[in-house]
Amino acid sequence: MISSMTGYGSASRQVSLGAGVVADLQVECRAVNSRFLDLGFRLPDECRGAEPALREMATQSLSRGKVEFRAAWRVNSGAAGAAKANPHALGALNKDRLDALYTLQEHAQVVFSNAEALRIADILRWPGIVAEPRGEEEGWIAATVEAGRAALAALMDSRHAEGKALVTVLINITSKMREIVKVIEPKVPTYVAQYQEKLTERLAEALAAQEQGKVNSGSGTELMERIRQEVVLYAVRIDVAEEFARLKTHLQVVDTALAGKGPVGKRLDFLMQELNREANTLSSKSVSEECTQAALELKLLIEQMREQVQNLE
Questions:
Q1: Domain count of the chain?
Q2: What confidence tens digit (pLDDT) does each residue in 143-179 have?
Q3: Are residues 153 and 13 in the same domain?
Q4: Are the beta carbons of 161 and 167 closer than 8 angstroms?
Q5: Among the listed residues 48, 265, 39, the one whose alpha carbon sits nearest the alpha carbon of residue 152
Q6: DSSP three-state, residue 112
Q7: 1 found inside a domain
Q8: 102 & 70 share domain
Q9: Cα separation of 295 and 311, whole Å?
Q10: Cα–Cα distance between 302 and 204 in angstroms, integer?
Q11: What DSSP state is assigned to residue 68?
Q12: Angstrom distance (rounded) from CA 188 to CA 16
């Protein structure tokens, strides 16, 4: 299935911290456009051990995009009830650190006699005073991997849904391009004939002017050079059959790619360059205003396709 490179997924799991306390862990997976697969991880220390497994999962499932895994956790709101039943549920005081802090406060008050004593909130926030329950490393890794797998699956679903919508948009654009080609291609022989008639009139006028002596013999070489230039220009402009053939072939290849499975972004990006090249050639070889307008419309549609193709994996 064709996928977009942008998407989002998240999942939550619970981790036991011990002493009846549970942490709510949430893992998010975000993806945006990128030429290659670029993985990033923003994980708390407790979840760092899960990074290799998350990287392997992402590498097996994705081929392009800038993908970032984010994890965060907080103590479950039910920890308050656990604290009533078990005083150590939310953590235990580190007596050595507490004594050291008290001694440090006494020394500071000797120097700053007017300083206030530390408040309970200040003491509890002091690094190392409260030893919070952290749970086992294996539990954190297992929960992070499980949540990461679910978040990645949600991301893939999101990318598939957006990819399906983009395919519909691209098919509509190719249909519009075919309509333009269908309308303008049969008219090209008529435009070429009109241009040929105009060129013939110019040559006839030039020859008539020479015969009537309106140009002197010294300008005969200049006249022939001008005629040669007109003929060469005409010969170049009349041949647009190959451009139309290649344009229709490229459109068919685009439709085939959109009907397939797997990553197609890079291939379609190359085809957009080829389509744009053919549209530019049609514009430069145009022999009528209608042909020029059709070429400009084709270029506009190709640019719209290119912008959408940039989002495909």
A1: 3
A2: 999 999 999 999 999 999 999 999 999 999 999 999 9
A3: yes
A4: no
A5: 39
A6: coil
A7: no
A8: no
A9: 25
A10: 42
A11: E
A12: 75
